[in-house]
Amino acid sequence: MPTIPSGRSLLDSDVLLRRAGLTIDMHYADFGAGMLGHFVLPACEIVGPGGEVYAVDILKEALQSVESRAQMENVTNLHIVWGDFERSGGVKIPAGSLHIISFVNVARVLMKSSVPIEEAKRLLRENGRVLVVDWKPGIGSIIVDEQRRVRSDAVHKLFVEHGFHLLEAFDAGPQHWGLIFKLSTA
Q: Which residues pair with 171 in a beta bridge?
C-alpha cells in the first residue's frame, strides 16, 4: 500500500514562506489558515518577536485548534482572526498593514469571485506580496479530487487582472504549484 506524504514531505511551509520573501519583523497573514497552522506557526518563527502573524479562517474550530497549538509552543506574535476573506471588508486586519498574504489550497475560492483578491489588495502594503499554493491538476492522488484542482495559469490571469504582477511561478512540492505576486504600484 502506498504511503500518503504529509507535513514537510508534501509542502514545506518554511521554505515557501522564505521564497515569498518573508523575513524578520514583517507582517503576514494566511487566508484560510486551517486546523494545523501549517503556515502560520513557521511564519511566527521567521518574523520573530517584532513581526506579526495573522491566522485567518471562517471556521472557529480551525482557529481554536491553531490557537491551542500556538499556546503549547509559547508563540506570542500570532493573532487569531475570525474572518471571511470572501466578503469585502471581512478580514479585520488594519488596511495596508501586511507585507505578505498567502492563499494555500484555496484556489477554488479565488476562482469563484474577485473579492478575496480585492481583500488582499486592501490589506497589503505598497509592494506587498501574495503567495498562492495549490494542488497540481493531472497528478493522481487520493488526497484531493481532480475536480477540486485549479490550474496555476487561471490563478495567474486573475491576479494580473486585479493589479498584481507575477514574480515567480514554481513547483511548490511533489503535488503543488506555487505563484508569487507583487502588488503593482501606480
A: 177
For cell 495567474, the residue is 156
Strands 124-135 and 52-57: unpaired
What gap in Å lies between CA 12 and CA 178, rounded to an integer?
Answer: 12
Question: What pLDDT, on the 0 to 100 scale, is given for residue 184?
Answer: 79
Q: Which three cell numbers stand for residue 52?
A: 506579526
Give the DSSP per-residue string, 23-54: -TT-EEEEET-TTT-TTHHHHHHHH-TTSEEE
The per-residue pLDDT for 3 is: 31
| CATH class for the region spanning 7-183 | alpha beta
pLDDT, tens digit (0-9, with 9 covering 90-100), for 15-60: 999 999 999 999 999 999 999 999 999 999 999 999 999 999 999 9
